[in-house]
Amino acid sequence: MIQTINLSEARKNLSQLTNEAYAGNITMVSRRGRELAVLIGVKEYWRLKEIESQQRKQDFDILLAAPASSALTEDEARQLAVNAVREVRAEWKD
């Protein structure tokens, strides 16, 4: 279950929320009813990064394996390539 908390309350309880995230809880931080951020634990973060990495590999494989007569349109291929470049650049910044 995801807990939602206002930003001002999150500031007051950051230490507790961090411990809860480490334990596996997820907290949505909002301000004036608008969702701003999600606080998750490091294990969940790395799990999501691995899923993202696997999806990127699948996208590359589709792009590289698609024959010219494939159902993959030029726009779809371009978007896959653009997304891949953006993700690689983002990783370089890390």
What would you say this structure looks like, in words?
The protein folds into two domains: 2-40, 3-Layer(aba) Sandwich (YefM-like fold), CATH 3.40.1620.10; 46-93, no CATH class. The protein has four helices and three strands. Helix 3 runs antiparallel to helix 4. By secondary structure, it is α+β, with helices and mostly antiparallel strands. The protein has a three-stranded mixed beta sheet with strand order 1-2-3. 1% of the residues are buried.
Mean pLDDT: 86
Question: Helix share of residues?
Answer: 55-70%
The helix/strand order is EHHEEHH
Strand content: 15-25%
Radius of gyration: 19 Å
Number of helices: 4
Number of domains: 2
Secondary-structure content class = alpha+beta
Sheet with most strands: 3 strands, mixed
Euclidean distance between termini CA atoms:
30 Å
Shape: elongated
Unreliable sequence segments:
none
Instruction: Find the count of extended strands (DSSP E, 2+ residues).
Output: 3
The spatial strand order of the largest sheet comes to 1-2-3
